[in-house]
Design brief:
The chain is mostly helical. It has a domain of 114 residues. It is 78% helix and 0% strand. It is rod-shaped. The N and C termini lie far apart (196 Å).
């Protein structure tokens, strides 16, 4: 009868152990990038929400078990809050927190597939093969029958020995293949882990830079608002000064106009006085001329008569 080899157990679509290790490594990177606060500090900052005991945090960071979702989310939020004490508490709806929640749900799904695969593999363990041999002859068997039975047993033993050798050879080959595959898997997992770690570090660096830029943008916005307020104050003061300047200029113009009118009136009065004085002088000169003519006529009457 031909031996039937058991079919290999179905493999999960992704390796849970590898993904879990990478997940914990990302948590360690996050803890380090947030200035690596002590577990006691994290516990104190956690407040009265989900308990963050140092032992539970140690179990998480040492990859002993997948934490509950509420524990993970609270742990991540506390790390971010400790890293940026001057900012408001991080919301659970923050994209960075949502990303950790999505990773946890994906890992939880892989864990379920991993556990189902292990149960299926334990159910598919092959049973021990039945012993190979032949039935012993009855007690009243003859010598030829005993000899024939002995030959069959020897043949069976030789066949079993040959099968043992072949099985041992196949086992060694399987072991060697397993060792080779394990080495390749370790190498691939290490390469993948390094790549993921590098990407995670890059992501953390960009997130930190983005947070710094956000803080800088907030400061610049506040400064712009302050400058806008100062600018409005200056504009109001300038407007007030312009109004006062216009009032002073108008008052000065009226004053100059009044001075000009007064000077004009004074000049007119002076001209009138001079004109009056000139007219009076002309009258006096005419009277004087007439008096001189009269005096001359009185002194030379003959000249006057001759002249007639």
């Amino acid at each position: 009868m031909e031996d039937q080899k058991p079919s290999p157990p179905p493999q999960p679509p992704e390796d849970y152990d590898e993904e879990f290790a990478a997940f914990i490594e990302r948590l360690r990177v996050l803890h380090a990038s947030c200035d690596a606060p002590s577990y006691r500090t994290i516990e104190a900052a956690g407040g009265t929400g989900v308990p963050l005991s140092p032992s539970s945090i140690s179990d998480l960071m040492n990859a002993k078990r997948l934490p509950k979702l509420d524990f993970l989310i609270h742990f991540v939020r506390v790390l971010y809050d400790l890293h940026r004490p001057d900012s408001p508490p991080m919301s659970r709806e923050d994209p960075r927190v949502r990303s950790w929640e999505q990773d946890w749900r994906r890992l939880k799904h892989l864990q379920g597939s991993h556990q189902r695969t292990q149960r299926k593999a334990s159910q598919d363990v092959p049973r021990t093969a039945p012993a190979v041999g032949c039935a012993l002859p009855p007690g009243n068997a003859t010598i030829p029958e005993l000899e024939a039975a002995r030959e069959k047993l020897r043949d069976s033993r030789a066949d079993i020995t040959e099968r043992q050798k072949q099985a041992s050879k196949d086992l060694m080959l399987a072991f060697e293949s397993q060792v080779r595959i394990d080495a390749e898997l370790r190498q691939l997992r290490e390469t993948t882990r390094r790549h993921k770690q590098a990407l995670q570090e890059k992501i953390m660096s960009l997130e930190a830079e983005r947070a710094q830029l956000g803080h800088h943008i907030a400061q610049l916005r506040y400064e712009l608002q302050e400058l806008q307020g100062v600018k409005l104050d200056i504009t109001e003061e300038e407007s007030e000064l312009n109004d006062r300047r216009a009032e002073l200029y108008f008052a000065w113009a009226r004053s100059q106009e009044a001075k000009s009118d007064a000077a004009s009136r004074q000049l007119t009065n002076h001209i009138e006085q001079l004109t009056s004085r000139l007219a009076d002088r002309d009258q006096k000169l005419a009277a004087a001329d007439q008096l001189i003519v009269g005096l001359r006529a009185a002194e030379h009457p003959s000249d006057s008569a001759y002249g007639h």
